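Dear Dr. V.,

Thank you for agreeing to look over these. As mentioned in my earlier message, I'm a first-year student in the group and I'm still getting used to reading structure tokens, so any feedback on how I've presented them would be very welcome. I ran two proteins. I've put each sequence directly above its structure. The first is here:
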Amino acid sequence: MALYYRDRWWAKYMEDYDYDDGPRLREKKLPYWVLVSRYRLAKGDKDKVLAGWQGWVSREELDAVLAYYEEFPEDIDGKLWKMEQY
């Protein structure tokens, strides 16, 4: 993980940045863009997003992903844009 992320509360949930998929949830290898995409599809309803993962993703993990996204939207938006082009 980049050193400049260590002071963020959400850093404990972030695995090293993968240049193909971007940031991922630690130990689960789930790319952040996947959760952000589901969050958008659910129109911001966190409960719907979490229900789709049936306990595999915690609310705190989702909050961490969204906090990262709020701070660094370009990291996720770029990947989402690429995925929409397929």
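The second protein is here, in the same arrangement:
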Amino acid sequence: MAELQLYRKRIIPEECFLLKDDEIIEQSDDKIITKWKTLRPKHDFDHGTSCYFLKDGIKVSKFYREDGTLLYWYCDIVQYDFNENCTTLTVTDLLADVVIYPNGRVKVMDLDELADALDRELITKEQMSACLRQLYNLLSIIDRDKFDKYQACLDGLGL
């Protein structure tokens, strides 16, 4: 079987590119775990790890500073599209994000971009609906102190 190629598709700005330097650590029917360096240099973080939860429509990442300390957990609401041979996976960022800081503070981000995308017809009604449902489910999990089920996938591997 050919090695899976991951693509990241953004709606705003519109772009799609191969994550050629991401290293796949683990892959199953339910999830894909990767580690990576930032695509473009950032002043506050340098590298991270991600778990693509294929059935939940989210990608949970740990963002690290250059010195290896945890900056925050970053959760993208996404849509997954495998090609028919399952050799490529395109991950479309549906814009809504949730950041969880080490002190427990939770911040929901980019809902304005989500509204802009709908107004400009860059996303479909179905994508908007899915995004809002996935965001609600994630926030409910965080609110019930059950986010550790997502953290365990990366923490359990020492990532």
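From my reading of the second output: The chain has three helices and nine strands. The radius of gyration is 15 Å. Does that match how you would interpret it?

Kind regards,
E.
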